[in-house]
Amino acid sequence: WFSFAIFEKELGNDKSMCHLIIRKATEIFPKNHLFPLFQAEFLEEEGNIPETHQLLQNLFELDKTYFTFTIYQRFLYRQFGIAAARLLFSSTYQFRVANPVSGLKV
Question: C-alpha angle with apex 29: 42 to 98, nearest 5 degrees?
């Protein structure tokens, strides 16, 4: 899936074909986080920040893990600055308390 989407992108074909390939892969493998992350990276490269933001926010809401939290927070930091990343961090206190990482104190 990744190779095919990248191949289409490198050929310079219509970008909607790349989006379609990634969306179909996400539909077929809904529990695989790599496809939405690949789609988010592709959208961010195109400058489609609102759609990228919505995609990553939905991914974090559907699967609240440290992995999705970190990806979403790093995106917020890159696009909207440290204030947005800190706001997410402070708003997820209950999540972090409920899911402590071994050896870290909250």
Answer: 85
CB distance 96 to 73 below 8 Å = no
Q: Provide the 3-class DSSP secondary structure of residue 21.
A: helix
Answer whether 23's CB lies under 8 Å from 39's CB: yes
Q: How far apart are CA 88 and CA 82, in angstroms?
A: 10
pLDDT single digits (tens) 13-47: 666 777 787 788 888 887 888 888 888 888 888 88
Pick the closest to residue 73 from 42, 95, 100 (CA basis). Answer: 95
H-type alpha helices, the chain: 2-11, 15-28, 34-46, 49-62, 66-80, 82-91, 93-98
Cβ pair 75, 53 in contact under 8 A: yes
